[in-house]
């Protein structure tokens, strides 16, 4: 048994370290800035705009003064014309390098480290306003990658009420409102979800205290600090050491969590999701008492010996010893938090671990500072094991979330929403019966009566069961949006049956929907709430031109939790549904679908130079290259030429904001 638990613990440690070593980030090789030679110019003055390109090492920027037919994208500017200025000269590069390129079979000009271009402008009015976009292409000698890039600027004087120059942004931002810091797995930007995640991690930290591995350690630890000089200072350092040790786990994982491309693969690929499912099952079995996940005794003994040397050095290793000794109880909890943070914001695992560790270290620090409070602590007993078992049921329920993601992405159809709900109902019923003493597991103490806290908790659990039951028959269960599979993956949905009957009645009466049939990929993808739409960009554009409606473009994903939340909480509003049905051609592009494309539909990305062979890879590349965004959900309103009409919208559960967004799109389309 020792060898098995040692192998499991080492495997888990290897997993976390291995995941943290993956580091591939979205590349932003060029940063643009610009300035006017005279912001206070008067009518008749000729001024100069200077554009600066800061280029990362290992990359170069193509200039503007070589044959455009060679192949590379030239750096170009496009001015939005108005009557306040006119172009007075050529767009001129300043001292670019020149060489013969064997690949393109011709002379090219380029910049390294820094590029500079100038443009002369004649001012015609006092309140002049110059709107300009600069675009080009940057490539790397080291990786062979080439990336299209661009930036928009607005220049003007004080009377025009615009800033002299827009803020500098990264090279991939062609629109000033674009490219929010959100991962491709569907997690929101840091400010949107980090607090909720930290609160959850803090609660997990409090729960870890009341486990058999940790709770008995409190009086032993406190007695150490109260029986020596400088005990209170050392107690504070002890608590901070615990926070620092756990925080280090988050720091190690942070590069992975903030990387969109890796996060997308981890969130949707079957290998990590099956692996996480297996790990969570192992965590649950451990909490149920089947075995213990412990650190190797040699490591624990070695660290414990260093804690005997005295001083603050020994205090740190005492904290380290506590972390190692309590690993059989805290390891699964820490693993849960770290796995849940993969694919989130860059700082998510760091903040998650700091929140967990703060709660975990709190009682050790407080009771060391105020030992008199120890009298109010409950005695150790069988209730501590009950805390572990309850956490085991939570781990078991969470495990199926990862299996559900794989089922959605690969279209297995095994774990539809009603099946998932049934599993959760079964787990919740078993948890309720356990709390009432009807089920006993190894290491549980005999229970003759049910304590009031257990009775209250059991009541909450059974109330949750009653909430889940309607979900078997098609109820949306909005509280669990983004966790359960979407409503479109439901074996038996009463609402869907009613909608289908209404549609059949409409068709039989001659009331046909405005659609182009057959819908490409219609056998793979489905829209929620009975909506009709397309899953191929070209087909949606053709429908927009034929029926004279704008396009509602939804960049989504099978593993995108916030996409499901938007669909269940915003799209479901009758006003939103009406506008989507009547005013728009709906286009949903899944960025994580692994369905292979025929070779004739493969594309070579201008973003990373790789060949995109699946529906998801092609759609994700389209989102990045055309809309400069890698986040889902991401909503764009397009005209019949496929051009964006108004600024795009991301995750926002405010229904009124979404209605305003749709209304503005219709107004823009009519203009």
UniProtKB/TrEMBL annotation:
It is found in: Membrane. The chain crosses the membrane at residues 194-215, 236-258, 270-291, 312-338, 350-370, 390-413, 419-436, 456-477. The keyword Transmembrane applies. Its main location: membrane. Residues 39-153 form the Thiol:disulfide interchange protein DsbD N-terminal domain. Keywords: Cytochrome c-type biogenesis, Membrane, Transmembrane, Transmembrane helix. Residues 195-404 form the Cytochrome C biogenesis protein transmembrane domain. Pfam families: DsbD_N (PF11412), DsbD_TM (PF02683), Thioredoxin_7 (PF13899). It is a multi-pass membrane protein. InterPro entries: Cyt_c_assmbl_TM_dom, DsbDN, Thioredoxin-like_sf. It comes from the Bacteria. This is Thioredoxin family protein. It comes from Flammeovirga kamogawensis.
